[in-house]
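Team,

Forwarding the record for the chain on the shared tracking sheet. I've put the sequence and predicted structure together so nobody has to dig through attachments.
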Amino acid sequence: MPSQFFGLNIAYTGLLASNAALNTTANNIANVQTEGYSRQQVSQQAADALRVFQKYGCAGGGVETLAIERIRDEFYDAKYRANNTNVGEYDMKQYYMKQVETYFDDNGVNAGFKTVFDQLMVTGMEELLKDPSSTTAKAQFLGYAGALTEYFNGLAGNLEALQKDINQEIKLRVDEINSLAGEIATLNKQINTIELGGNKANELRDRRDLLIDRLSEIVDVEINETPITDPYHPETETGATRYVVKIASGQLLVDGNEYRGLSCVARTSYEKTNQTDIDGLYDVYWEDGQQFNLYNAAMGGELKGLVQLRDGNNGENFQGEIIATGLTNGGMQDTVTIRVDKGYLQDLNKCNLSDQGGIINLGNQEFYYDSWEYSCTYDADGNATYTYTFTLSDSEKNDNRVTNDRVGKTATIGAGIFYQGIPYYMSQMNEWVRTFSQKFNDILVSGYDNNGNSGSMMFTANKASDDDQFDFPDGTRYDLGAAHGDVTVKVNDDSYYRMTAKNFDILVAMELDPDLLATKVDPADGVEQNDLLESLREMVYDKEKMSFRGASASEFLQCILSDVALNASSANIFYSSYTGIANAIDTQRISISGVDEDEEAVNLVKYQNGYNLASKMIQTLTEVYDRLILETGV
């Protein structure tokens, strides 16, 4: 039979439950504007009934307050983070593609390609055609040509600066991943310390979820939380959990109280992938030395967007089949010959291989190489075979030698990144200036100047090591066809491969003496003859004479802007779309876990009434006990 004071105990439990609910409501209201805060509620249940051995069976024992728990839906968390990864990726792409679009734009305010090209081939050419013997007209024409070279020099410089900015931002994101991972690991320890005692670390869990939300914007995340059981009683949970965070398609970042740090290591000059890459691009490594795969196709987030912008080559990386190995330098260095069948590798004007050495993958084994040479050979039927022969570095860089079992396997340099990033646009500019200069110079050297002297080239490139300029002799020409026989071009030869948008320039001798500019086909013609100039103008506007991506030389801007505009528009559309989805999912999350001021106001009244009623019950029972103890005879 229960004590006479049993009712007082029941009322007391109700008072405690209402007090806990009121305190929780106060906490919710106080955190209504706190980012990442999850609404909390009191979990309670009826206390165990007491058997009284009466006809009515058991007497209720009041209420038990079990825990204060946060309201959170992990399903919406997972959806939000998966979408947040896409938001991060396209946020970076839209931001930087807007800058690239600005660089290429020709809006009349900043002189773009069309403006400077029309000055050369319309304004300058028309004046020169009127009086081919005029030194002034030639000087003006060369001035407009110089403006064209400066345009490409400046554009290449802008893209290099942009690649440097993106590279630095990759380092900032890696540093932020480390910071987030360290804080998450610390929170895991704190949460387990609290929850081992049977309590819920609600605020700490909210903070951890907020960090995971931010991490999911930088890189894709995968979360797994499992309870830790007593090793001697596997069916008994300890209250602690093992919280594991994986990023970049399953690479372990945090495991309980421990996390793996990442570090950025700048590439040396002989580790460049592309000819146009700036020095010091970062590769990322785990703290144990294992390389973090930045080119993982399944990776997402801001890191993916930044890597694609920095290294995107539209999938046009070096790849071919190993057909032979050999020795050079007295047997001290290995060579490997690779046959290529990709059009962008067969055309040396499109080549973007590093000219300072690099790393080549030969059948899944990596080797450093010092230099390479390109060969175009023809069989009896005039069919061409295109090969590259790489001279591998000595034992100071390569621990192993190349063996014959590499023959027949695939060779690659860099990764094929199917996005049009900085290397792609640099390569496109290089291809245009090389092809245009080559065709333009071919016409000039085939003609004669006013003095009857053989024409000289006008467009050339500056050497990096000194104040000299490249000569581009015919012996380095690979595009003259089978009639001219086999051709081999070494990386350090004065071939048009050495010309880039960055070092594109006018021949200094012609700038000093404009009369060196050839204007006629026949040396016997008079000084007023301009048929060679007419050929130059035809070449520029006739895609049969010079073709760039199926268009004429004058349509370079349309070709590039179509790529830039498409990528910028795509980034804007996807960013807007994923942002809208993120807002919709977040609204659903907030509807469950967010604090609603009206709802909390209702709860406040409800729990206040419960508290008042429990207090009234205690007061009533107090009066009953007073009568029982003081006024009833015992």
